[in-house]
From TrEMBL:
CDD domains hit by this protein: HATPase, HisKA
SUPFAM superfamilies tied to this protein: ATPase domain of HSP90 chaperone/DNA topoisomerase II/histidine kinase, Homodimeric domain of signal transducing histidine kinase
Species, as recorded: Undibacterium rugosum
Protein name, entry field: histidine kinase
Highest taxon above the source species: Bacteria
C-alpha cells in the first residue's frame, strides 16, 4: 500500500500536473513565436538592404566604356551614420573589378542561392567584416550602352546590431506575455480548485464534527458526481460498521445476561458453604459449585467461540484440509457419548473431500451438529453423518431420528441463546449457542445451512436419500470453499 504521506496535496498535485505541461507548451510556443518574429524581422531588414542596393544600382552607368557609379555625399553620409546600425557598400564592374565603396567588403560566395522572395537577382548571406557579423545583400544589376553590356554587382552590408536589438525586444515581449499568461492560468486554476474542492472539504468538516456514535448516511448530493461513489462506499462501510457494533452490543448484552445467572448461583453456593458446618452438607455444596463452574466454563468457551466466528478473526487462518478426515475424527471423539445412549452413529464418506477452511472452527461446527444429534436423539436411535462432493461445493449432512423442530423453531434456532421448548424441557443445561456457532462458521466458509424434517423412507431434495428406517431432523450444510 502506498504511503499516504507520499500523496501530498491534491491541489498541489493538480497544479503541478497542469502547470508543468503548460509551462513546457508555453516555452515551445514562445520559441516558435520568437523564430517567426525573427524571420519577419529578417524579411523587413532584407527588404531595406535590397532597397539600398537598388538605389545604388540605379546610379550605375557606362561612361567612356567604363562602369561608373555616382553616389551623392548625402547617400554616403546615410551609409556611415545610419541609426539602426552601420552600413557598408561596394560596387563591382561587369568583370568583377572594384568600382566604389569598401573594397575589402566580403564578396559573394559561390554556394549562396538566389532569393526567390523578391523579383530581382539578389543573394542574401552572412559574413564577418572588421570583427563584426554582418548581413549582405548582393544584387546583380544589368548595365549597358551602345557599345557594351554586362552585369554589375552591388553589395550592401549591415551590422546586426539593429536586428539583435529587435530580436531581444521580441523575445522579452514574448516571454513577458507568456509569463503573464501562465500566472493568470495558475491563478484561475487555483481559484477553480478552491471552488471545486469546497464540497469535498465540507464533507470532511461534517465527518469531523460528527459524534462518534452517529453512523447515519451522508447525502451523496453534497458532492460532485465523480465523488458520489466514494460517499456511497463510505455510507456502506458505516452501515456495516453499525451492524457490527450493534451485533457486538447485542452479544455483550446477551453474554452478560447468560453469565450473570451462573455467577449468581456460584456466589450463593459459596456463601452457603461458608455458613455450613456439616461436612456432608459442605461436600454436597462443593459438588454443586463444581457442577456450576463446569457449566459456566462451558458457556464461556461457547461465547468465545461465537465471538471469534462472529467477527471473522479466523478468516486469515484458512488452510487446505480434508473435511472427510475431520468428520471422521469428530465421530470418533463423540462415539463414546453415542455408545452410552446405545445409539448407532455412522459416517458415510466414501470420497476424500478437501476444501479451504479453518480447521478449529470446522471441528467446532461438526462437534455441535453431531453432539446436538446425540443429545436430542432418544436412546437406541440412529445418527448418520454424510460428506458428499459436489461440482462447486461440499455437502455435509447430519441426520437423526430425534423429535425434530417445528417450522417456527427452525427460523429461530440459529439465534444466540434461543432454545426450543422441547429441548429446554428435556435438557435444561444447554446454552442455546450451538446452532448459532454453526451458522457463523458456515457463513465464514461461504456456505448455507438448512433444516429439514425427514419422514421414514422419504426422498430428499438434491438427489440424496435418507437412511432407511430413520425419520427425524436432517441438517444440510453446503460449503463453497473448495480447493
Amino acid at each position: 500500500m502506498q504511503n499516504l504521506d507520499q500523496l501530498g496535496s491534491l491541489r498541489g498535485q493538480f497544479l503541478r500536473w497542469l502547470l508543468i505541461p503548460l509551462v513546457i507548451l508555453v516555452a515551445l510556443n514562445a520559441f516558435s513565436v520568437y523564430n517567426n518574429a525573427l524571420d519577419a524581422a529578417d524579411l523587413a531588414y532584407d527588404r531595406s538592404l535590397l532597397s539600398s542596393a537598388r538605389a545604388l544600382g540605379e546610379r550605375i552607368a557606362i561612361v567612356d566604356g567604363k562602369v561608373t557609379v555616382d553616389v551623392p555625399y548625402v547617400a554616403l553620409d546615410s551609409f556611415e551614420t545610419d541609426t539602426l546600425g552601420r552600413l557598408y557598400y561596394r560596387v563591382s564592374g561587369i568583370h568583377g573589378e572594384y568600382i566604389s565603396g569598401y573594397e575589402d567588403l566580403p564578396g559573394l560566395p559561390k554556394n549562396v542561392a538566389r532569393s526567390d522572395i523578391y523579383p530581382a537577382l539578389v543573394h542574401f548571406f552572412h559574413a564577418q567584416y572588421q570583427g563584426q557579423p554582418i548581413r549582405i545583400a548582393a544584387l546583380h544589376q544589368p548595365v549597358y550602352d551602345d557599345r557594351m553590356r554586362g552585369i554589375a554587382l552591388v553589395e550592401v552590408a549591415e551590422t546586426l546590431d539593429a536586428r539583435r536589438g529587435m530580436s531581444r525586444k521580441i523575445l522579452l515581449d514574448t516571454l513577458l506575455r507568456q509569463a503573464l499568461l501562465v500566472i493568470a492560468v495558475a491563478l484561475l486554476v487555483w481559484l477553480a480548485l478552491r471552488f471545486v474542492l469546497h464540497p469535498l472539504l465540507q464533507l470532511s468538516y461534517y465527518l469531523a464534527e460528527r459524534e462518534p456514535t452517529d453512523l447515519s448516511d451522508f447525502s451523496p448530493l453534497i458532492v460532485h458526481k465523480e465523488i458520489r461513489p466514494l460517499v456511497l462506499a463510505m455510507n456502506g462501510y458505516m452501515a456495516r460498521l453499525d451492524q457490527l457494533i450493534s451485533g457486538q452490543k447485542r452479544f455483550i448484552a446477551d453474554a452478560s445476561h447468560q453469565l450473570r445467572t451462573p455467577l449468581t448461583v456460584l456466589k450463593t453456593q459459596a456463601e452457603l458453604a461458608l455458613r455450613e458446618d456439616d461436612p456432608v452438607a459442605m461436600r454436597q455444596i462443593v459438588q454443586s459449585i463444581a457442577q456450576t463452574t463446569d457449566t459456566t466454563v462451558y458457556l464461556a468457551n461457547r461465547l468465545l467461540t461465537l465471538a471469534r466466528t462472529g467477527h471473522g478473526v479466523a478468516e486469515m487462518e484458512m488452510t487446505e484440509l480434508s473435511l472427510t478426515q475431520l468428520a471422521r475424527e469428530v465421530c470418533l471423539e463423540l462415539a463414546l457419548s453415542a455408545v452410552r445412549k446405545q445409539q448407532d452413529l455412522a459416517l458415510e464418506a466414501d470420497t476424500e473431500v478437501r476444501l479451504r477452511g479453518h480447521a478449529l472452527l470446522l471441528h467446532e461446527m461438526l462437534t455441535n451438529l453431531i453432539d446436538n444429534a446425540i443429545t436430542y436423539t432418544p436412546a437406541g436411535g440412529q445418527i448418520v453423518v454424510r460428506v458428499l462432493p459436489r461440482e462447486t461445493s461440499v455437502l455435509l449432512e447430519v441426520q437423526d431420528n430425534g423429535p425434530g423442530l417445528s417450522d417456527t423453531e427452525k427460523e429461530k434456532v440459529f439465534q444466540p441463546f434461543y432454545r426450543a421448548l422441547s429441548s429446554s424441557a428435556s435438557h435444561p443445561g444447554g446454552t442455546g449457542l450451538g446452532m448459532s456457532i454453526v451458522s457463523e462458521v458456515v457463513q465464514l466458509h461461504q456456505g448455507r445451512i438448512t433444516l429439514e424434517d425427514v419422514r421414514r423412507g422419504a426422498a430428499l431434495a438434491g438427489g440424496t436419500s435418507p437412511t432407511p428406517g430413520i425419520s427425524g431432523l436432517l441438517v444440510r450444510v453446503q460449503l463453497s470453499c473448495l480447493v
